[in-house]
Amino acid sequence: MAWIKTVPLKDADGELLDLLLKQRAMYPKEYEESTAGVTGTEESIVESHTLIPAAMFHAFSTFGALMSPDLPLSRRHHEMIAMMVSDTNDCFY
Prior knowledge:
Blueprint: H1 14-26, H2 36-39, H3 53-66, H4 75-88
Helix pairs in contact: 1-3
């Protein structure tokens, strides 16, 4: 497994902190709670992109925009579409 340097939220400052907080604010409430208790790790796909803050923000805020409750589909429909796309693309996660 490759090791990627990351900057956890607690260590972020300046532009990185600002963009992490803006990106997090766009995500559904269900994503606010850490899954470390279940997974046994605090690893984060978002944190793996913290060395390039602008790219991280644009890549992950897209997901936030696509999951917006202001869109005409319900949350369950958004999740169903995401699951089917992942399955179609043979994603294992």
